[in-house]
Design a protein that fits this description.
- By secondary structure, the protein is mostly helical.
- The protein has a domain of about 90 residues.
- It is built from five helices and no strands.
- The longest helix is centred in the middle third of the chain and has 35 residues.
- It is elongated and about 85 Å long.
Amino acid sequence: MNRLFILIIAVPLIEIFLFIKVGSYIGAYNTISLTLITAIIGVIYARYEGFNTLRSAIPQLKKDEIPIYEIISGAALAFAALLLILPGFATDLLGFLLIFPPTRKVFVNKFSENVKSKNNLNNNVIEGEFEDKED
């Protein structure tokens, strides 16, 4: 089966399960409040970290270097903000893990390794020598 299809089915089921479990312990109003508070705090902190990422990219741009880590980190922050806006505890946990720099660095490094290994497998280069022969 396609991984995306499994994610589309599994994530809402996990979130519903967690809403029921957490709601049974702390109550419905507290569960809704907790969901809203995590979304607000997460988006504010994602914005803060996004500006920090932008600030760290400026010196590299001044030296005419491509800030690759900052670009990937910015995309991870945007994805984290999306996860935090979505209601749910599992998506909030993943969003908060992506927002904090130490755990984001682990995710970015893992993503970079996967991309590099896929690029090396698809790199079909045949090296050789050639000689121009005129008739």
